[in-house]
Design brief:
The complex is a heterodimer of chains A (265) and B (418). In chain A, 35% of the residues lie in helices and 20% in strands. By secondary structure, chain A is of the alpha/beta class. In chain A, strands 1-2-4-3-5-6-7-8 form an eight-stranded mixed beta sheet, sandwiched between helices. Chain B is globular. Classes of the chains: A alpha/beta (265), B alpha/beta (418).
Chain lengths: 265, 418
Amino acid sequence: MATTMEQRTISVRDGMFEAEVFEWGSTKGEPLLFLHGSSSLVRGPYLEDLGDRYHVIAPTHPGFGESTGLDHIDDPVDMAIYYYDFLDALGIDAAHVVGHSLGGMLAAEVAALDPHRVRKLVLCNPVGLWRDDAPVLDFFAEDIDRLQRAVWYDTEGEQAKAMRPDMSDMEKLMAFMYESMQSLAAAGKFLWPIPDRGLAKRLHRIAAPTLIVWGAADQLVPAVYAEEFRSRIRDARVAILPKSAHFPMLEEREDWVRAVTDFLG
Amino acid sequence: MKLHFFHLMPWPDLPDDFQQKYRSVWVDVPSHLYDPVRGHEVYNDYLDELEYAASEGFDGICVNEHHSNAYGLMPSPNLMAAALARRTRDAALIVMGNSIALYNPPVRVAEEFAMLDVISGGRLVAGFPVGSSMDTNFAYGQVPINLREKYQEAHDLIIRAWTDPDVFAWNGKYTQLRYVNTWPKPVQKPHPPIWIPGGGSVETWDWVTQRGYLYAYLSYFGYKRAAGAMRGFWDEVERQGVEPNPYRAGFLQFVGVSETDAQAEAEYGEAADYFYNRCLHVATGFADAPGYRTMKTVKSGLMAQIGAAARQLREGLKWKDFIEQGYIVAGSPETVRQQLTEVAKGLNVGHMMLLLHFGNLSKEQVTKNTTLFAREVMPHLKPLFSEWEDKWWINPLAPADRRDPAPAATERAPQAVK
């Protein structure tokens, strides 16, 4: 049963931030905070599926989409503190937190800096660590074809096609390019030039049971990083999904949703 | 008007198939293409060319800063300016300039520029570019979205370091210093003239005008395509109710002078092709990091200098196109005189920075170009704008206070030990 999406704006820290929030599921359900990656929030059916069981709260980060206040945030630690204020504004003491890519890095910060705010943690293809022998792709500079091959298991699959802009409609294409520039510009604050802002020093603080889920074919953030995260987090397990890359929640939606919901309970 | 000789110091030996074989002249250009033995020759030739221009009466000689770049071999323009300071006497040393967000702490720039100003007896023009995305974001790792804020803070700190007679504390977002106390202070008071090289960011026009600095539009695509950007600048000057003094503005132009127009093509055609088709071959992904330009500038439709759109402006172009589209002003002295007069008047620019070396021109060619320009073209252009006062110019020490370097000493032969 598909849930319907609600949209609202939440004022955080007395209006310093205006957060655009998308929600699925009953507000009586357990709260689940979804933190998106560098290309902003992909509002796919995977969020509806999660909405069947949880109260899914998916904001765009400050500086992404319509959410404001990036000027007041300098690094991932500032961002974690912002999300405590965000949860306060919603009257939520603790939530499940699911983060993808950049959002995975931020979710890990949220869980490490104040462990009691996070019940269970899901990190999906997160960035935040660095190995010289397996560098995260420089997705700020790579050309579009290389990027496509890096982030999709099947570059000609339905999901990959759906995420590509309509090249025949100039107006839509420009809007897509502006939004993508805005998102990447904001992401650069946390990931440029190397996506490592010291998270490795803080991961041991994470107390929440943690699931690390990864699309095996990811060439943007190779799956070798799954073990890097697992070995640093007290109570963590890994699920590798074989037929997806950087967006397993799109390319292997059913398996991804099952892995996440089985873990969260 | 004032005329300056500008050198980019390109590597002259990029292979013929450079564009096919490598993806970028900048950021990840392979270092095996560089040969330090040849580099020794190249640097010394290029410095000779700048010194020669000074001796031929150019008002200023210009150097600039690039990193990991095969067409700009001056990671530190200050070193070049230091070398030139002792070998020139009257020409302004126009450093165009230091990308001040890259220096940690930025007082380093205040110190080095002050040293240059003092050594040269007050001949420094201090250029403060934001710097290209390739230089600042890719080669020097600066977070694109923070770059302009960091630049602003560095600017404010440097100006205060030059002008505040007291030791002060600086609690900035990017720089914290308990004691700022710049020694030496510049000769020129309150500080050397400040020129802001720009590529057409809309915010820059507003800020430059408010501060009363010179705006230098540095485009590789000539005066015809510069008209839009310069109009934007002059509109802003008018909007702020400031006088449209042409000396507020500078402009970069490639120039090749020869005996006749036909001879100019024969002499400069290959070097023009070398510049546009090898030196400007930059990977699209390095051209414009997300966040480097503000969304306001992006949406204003002003084109980036480098990258996919810029590539369309140069690909497949021949000499005839370079000339017709005004990328290069070349021909007989009369042709060049006429066109540069048109450029100066059309754009209302009192300072022209001339690239008389470009691409892979030889020292002999540059010497000829410089000589012809200085003797046959320059005298006709200098009287332009004489009704205006240039308030953006150097103010050197009085002759009585100047100290000339001793003639270069010849080295003593090693003495045998007795």
